[in-house]
Design goal:
The complex is a heterodimer.
Chain A lengths: L1 H7 L7 E4 L3 H20 L5 H23 L13 H12 L11 H25 L7 H32 L3 H7 L1 E4 L7
Antiparallel strand pairs in A: 1-2
Chain B lengths: L8 H35 L4 H56 L4 H11 L4 H8 L3 H15 L4 H14 L2 H12 L1
Helix pairs in contact in B: 1-2, 2-7, 3-5, 4-5
C-alpha cells in the first residue's frame, strides 16, 4: 500500500498531467479569440474585411460543433451537457470548496461555452443579414447585431473571471491547459 | 519508451498539423460560401455557371475537410488507447512489485526503501528523501536483500527484470485491453 502511494505521487510533486484538449479544440479556441478581437476592435464594420473575419468566426463555430459530435471524449458535447442544475451545484460546491474536478468543461463553464457559441452565431447571422439586399438598412437587425456584441463582451469578461476563479480554487492552471492541452491535476484530487 | 507505444512527438506534430489544415480548409470554405452568397445577391442567376463552380468548390472542400476530421479523430483515438495501454502496463508492474514485497514480508519502511532502490537511487539520496541516516538505509537494504534472498542491488533489480522479460508480451496487452474495455 505504502509502495503504491509512493509511485503514484512520483511525478513533479505528485501532479498528474492529463491530456485533455486536442489540437483542434485549442486551435479553434484561439482562432475564435482572434476573430472576436479583430472584428470587435480592429476592423472597420463597413469594410469587406469585417465580413471575411465574420465568416471565419462562423466557420470556426460550425467546425467546433461538428467536432463536438465526432471528436474525442473531452471535446464532445456529452462531456459537458448544458445543465443549469449541475451548474448551480458547481457554484455551491465551489464556494464551499468541495467541488469535484472536471477534465472537460465544468458544468458552469459548459453553459458559458454554449452561450458564447450561440452569441457568435447570432452575430454572424445578423451580420450576414445586414449585407443582404432584403435586410439592408433594416434597423432591428443592426440593433440585434450590436446588442449581441455587447452581450459577447460581457460573456467574455465572465468567461475570464470564471477561468481565473476556477484556476485559483481547483489549482489546475486552465489557461495553460488551453495552450498545451494538458491539465495538471494536483495530487490527491479526483477528476471526472 | 517509444517502442512501448507511447505516442511520440511525431504523432503529436502530425495531429497538430492536421488540425491546422482542417482550420485552414474550413476558413477557405467559409470564404467560398461568402462569395457565393454575395455574388448571388448582386448577380442573381445570370452567372449561374460561375456560381455553380464556386458552390462546387465549397462542397469539395467540405468533403475533403470531413475526411481530415475523421483522420484526426482516428489519430487522437489511437494515441488515447496507447496511453491507456501504458498506464495498464505500469499498473501491472506495480502489482508485480507489490506481490514480491508482500511475499518477502518487507516492513513498510523497507518497502519504501526497496522501491527507491528499484528506481536507481543511491543510499545517500534515499536517506535524504526519507530523512534518516545513511547507516539506517544501509541496514534496511541489508534486511531487504536478506528477505529477498539476493546478494545486492543488481540482483534485486534482476528479479523484476526477469519478471518483465519472461512474461509473454501478450499478457500485458490483454491487461491493457481489459482496462480499456
Amino acid at each position: 500500500m505504502n509502495a503504491k502511494l509512493e509511485t503514484r505521487d512520483a511525478g513533479e510533486a505528485g501532479i498528474r498531467i492529463i491530456p485533455v484538449w486536442d489540437p483542434l479544440v485549442r486551435l479553434i479556441h484561439w482562432s475564435l479569440v482572434t476573430t472576436i478581437v479583430l472584428n470587435g476592435f480592429i476592423t472597420d464594420p463597413e469594410r469587406k474585411l469585417h465580413e471575411y473575419v465574420g465568416y471565419a468566426a462562423l466557420a470556426l463555430v460550425i467546425l467546433r460543433l461538428v467536432w463536438g459530435l465526432v471528436g474525442p471524449r473531452h471535446a464532445r458535447f456529452s462531456a459537458f451537457p448544458p445543465n443549469p442544475i449541475a451548474a448551480m451545484r458547481h457554484i455551491r460546491d465551489t464556494l464551499s470548496r468541495r467541488s469535484s474536478l472536471h477534465l472537460s468543461h465544468n458544468p458552469l463553464g459548459a453553459l458559458m461555452v454554449y452561450n458564447i457559441w450561440g452569441t457568435v452565431l447570432l452575430l454572424c447571422a445578423t451580420g450576414i443579414m445586414m449585407g443582404t439586399i432584403r435586410f439592408f438598412g433594416v434597423e432591428w437587425v443592426q440593433e440585434v447585431h450590436e446588442a449581441a456584441f455587447t452581450w459577447l463582451m460581457i460573456s467574455v469578461g465572465l468567461h475570464l473571471l470564471g477561468v481565473f476563479a476556477e484556476t485559483w480554487m481547483s489549482g489546475v492552471p486552465l489557461v495553460r491547459a488551453m495552450v498545451d492541452g494538458r491539465k495538471r491535476v494536483p495530487a490527491g484530487r479526483e477528476a471526472e | 519508451m517509444n517502442e512501448t507505444g507511447k505516442p511520440g512527438p511525431k504523432t503529436k506534430r502530425r495531429a497538430i498539423a492536421l488540425a491546422g489544415l482542417i482550420v485552414a480548409n474550413v476558413l477557405c470554405t467559409s470564404f467560398f460560401a461568402m462569395d457565393v452568397i454575395t455574388d448571388f445577391e448582386s448577380l442573381g442567376t445570370d452567372e449561374a455557371f460561375h456560381l455553380t463552380v464556386e458552390a462546387g468548390a465549397a462542397v469539395v472542400l467540405v468533403v475533403g475537410t470531413s475526411f481530415m476530421i475523421l483522420e484526426l479523430r482516428r489519430i487522437l483515438q489511437r494515441n488515447a488507447s496507447m496511453e491507456i495501454g501504458i498506464r495498464a502496463a505500469r499498473g501491472e508492474m506495480q502489482a508485480v512489485i507489490d506481490k514480491y514485497f508482500a511475499e518477502w514480508r518487507l516492513s513498510d519502511a523497507e518497502r519504501d526503501v526497496a522501491l527507491l532502490l528499484l528506481k536507481g537511487l543511491d543510499n545517500e539520496t534515499i536517506a535524504s528523501i526519507r530523512g534518516t541516516a545513511t547507516g539506517t538505509v544501509r541496514a534496511q537494504c541489508a534486511g531487504i536483500y536478506a528477505k529477498a534472498g539476493v546478494d545486492g542491488r543488481s540482483q534485486l533489480m534482476s528479479v523484476f527484470m526477469e519478471e518483465l522479460l519472461s512474461e509473454p508480451l501478450g499478457a500485458l496487452r490483454d491487461g491493457a485491453a481489459a482496462e480499456a474495455a
